[in-house]
Amino acid sequence: MAIDKYYLKPLIFSLLFTFFAFSSLAQTGDQSKFFISGRIIDSLTGKPIEYATIGLLTQTDSKVVNGTTADSTGLFNIPDVSEGTYKLIIDFIGYQLTEKKDIIISKNNGQINLGEIKLSSKKTTLKGVTISADKNIIENKIDKLVYNVDKDITSQGGVATDVLKKVPEVTVDVDGNVELQGNSNIKFLIDGKPSIIFGSSIAEVLKALPASQIEKIEVITSPGAKYDAEGTGGIINIILKKSNAHGINGSFSISGGTRLENGSLNLSARSGKFGVHAYLSGNGALRSTSLNNSDRFTNDSSTTSDMIQSGANSFIRGGFWTGAGFDWDMNPKNTLSGSIGYDNFRFDYTGTGTRQILTNDLSGNTISDFNDASVRSGNNHHNAYDINLNY
Length: 391
Prior knowledge:
six-stranded antiparallel beta sheet; elongated; 391 residues; 53% strand; five-stranded mixed beta sheet; mainly beta
């Protein structure tokens, strides 16, 4: 079959137009399939890094083009990349920022797999690490038990006697007498040294020593050879508060009630290796009165006897501590310190009583009627100085 020349030219033109149209469409479709892929892993373990951030930027002006994140296996894919030269920025917490340059997308190389990209962990050098923790209220050590009074806020408003009632293995009776594991033969120390303030009644001294002035109490049930034979029942060492803070520091506390009142003032100053401190603490038990009454009836074969007694006892107690000291750290192995302290305690009491002894025969006739009255009073006043110089 012959084709007319009239139709041949239009046919050839149509075929050429169709070819170029399909060619153009093919090129557009190929560009939409351009992508960059890869896998992010740890440089040491080889494990995938999940959710690592990947950014695609133009290499010439660092303009952000696209971005994605790695999946649970570390794989990533950035689709629909136009022709050009790019760089990848890969980042993740705890790893060094990694950059991949010279990634060229072209018609001949539009699908680029970068393979495994290894990220290195950041290396951080610490200048120093300080680990701190609060002390427990009670510490069991090899040679002693320590009760940290300053960590027990419930002990700050009382006196030393109140604190000792909370110390394990120590018992205090209603009169303030102290026993250690049932033994009352105890040696008391202040800051590891004997103190003349205990030369008077220990029970009264402990009732006048404010708990706010005590840092801790050490209980030694089996004293070593460095302690003398006194105190076979054990040793109770009362450590008073000191301040090592630099600058000028101070604290003030006061409490009151119908039975006991407390107050304390602490000041300290430190500059470099030298420091000074001063304190004033006191308390007072307001006058208290206790009443007592008794009625005792007895009889025998010929008489009956009725003894009626009544009385009242009143007491007042108070005292204060004051002092100052210094410490000088001359070098890491030599320290010079000194202190002077003064304490004053008092305990006054009065008592009154009446007694009647009525004796009758079996018929109710009075044989005798004896009456008497008594008045008792006493006081215990004590003051002392403590001077220490230690090297």
